[in-house]
Amino acid sequence: MHRSITRTYLKHYANVHNGADELMPLTGAQRRFHHARSTDPHDRAQILPVFLEFPPGLLSTQRLEQAARSVLLRHPALRGAADTAGGVPVLRIDPLPEGPIVREITAPDTDRALWAALDHWPAGPGSFRVLLARDERRDLLAIGFDHLVCDGESTGLVLDELMSGYHSAGPEQDSAEAALRRYREAVEQQLAREHEASGPQALEHWTSRVRDAGPGLWGTEPHEPGPSASARQRVALPGTAPHRPFPVLLEACHTALARIPGTAPVAYTWGGQDGAGVVGCFINTVLANPQHDGVRESWWEDLEFVDTPFDEVVRAARACQAPWTGHLDLVLTLIDRTRRPAPVLDGVPGRFTYPPGNRTQEPVIVTAVHDQGELSLRIDHDSAIVPGAAATTIADVLAESFADTGQFAR
């Protein structure tokens, strides 16, 4: 059996678990989030938010609280918090909180107030919260997750169950023991995939990809994140394009970084437990750094190895003395809303939104939201370390990549 970072971690975890039901192992992505928070001078979690607008006065705090408690009972990961046991990173599952989960916010600037509340995320209150801000124009609902316990696919599942619980008592609950068992089994399956994907063939593949990768340009030294600046674009996807927007996006991001010498390869998030019904963080961060073929061709080859943990790719790069040693300049995320339209509450449809004011976790983050025949692009960058000209280059290349559709709008 081959060695791997995953296998080594599981050996350490076995030494501290001691059969404790409340202690869960961490996936590779979870360990990265845990490390990032432990090295942040302000102890900040990486927040994954979902925002929904409804007409003013529609939402009931009491019904939201009932629905949120139902979700927390069903999905133990959302009650979890990263911890260490004997020096080993773990997820510690806490009981259902005694205090309220839903917090109502009243402020002149609801956008700013919600982001401030999400950004101030003490370690104690858990990894899931529901915030409601009201003004004369709207009810703005923010559902916040510590990314360590929830990936993008899981947010959709939580949203479905939260809205279902708002209308009724929600689905029949598993016992607490059954819910813990389902989550533990899902994490163990994910870790088994990560170990299997860390074998010699996978490492040889990724070594060939990263051998000449650029070292990275923005934020390579420790720094205090600056204000986030954003650009937004909308693209109509005619014909067969709605089914395959991701390779086009990936190629555009790669092309943009290739125009800026010294940048690291584009990275993207991949994975999830689609259809499994388990909330958790089951993603991986994958690089796209083609050698001879184009990005789209090499991406198809990379798909065989997308489960190789990011940390294994970093270790392979360092072993071959590549210039790149793990830094990321740009991360691409695709959110697929084609199967999950905005919810309807009491007969009134909500609307997904994304207020300005977020804190950017990476130098540049490109978020693409795929909704039926349209793609909404948001390019966020840390203005303290990424020059405005570089951010404009990235936005322009993304625009160029879809220009031939004739349906581009900024």
TrEMBL record:
Signal peptide: none annotated. GO terms for molecular function: catalytic activity; phosphopantetheine binding. It holds the Pfam family Condensation. It comes from the Bacteria. Residues 212-233 are annotated as: Disordered. One of its GO terms (biological process) is amino acid activation for nonribosomal peptide biosynthetic process. Coiled coil: none annotated. InterPro entries: CAT-like_dom_sf, Condensation_dom. GO terms for cellular component: cytoplasm. Residues 23-211 form the Condensation domain. PANTHER family: FATTY ACID SYNTHASE (PTHR45527:SF1), NONRIBOSOMAL PEPTIDE SYNTHETASE (PTHR45527). This is Condensation domain-containing protein. It comes from Streptomyces tubercidicus.
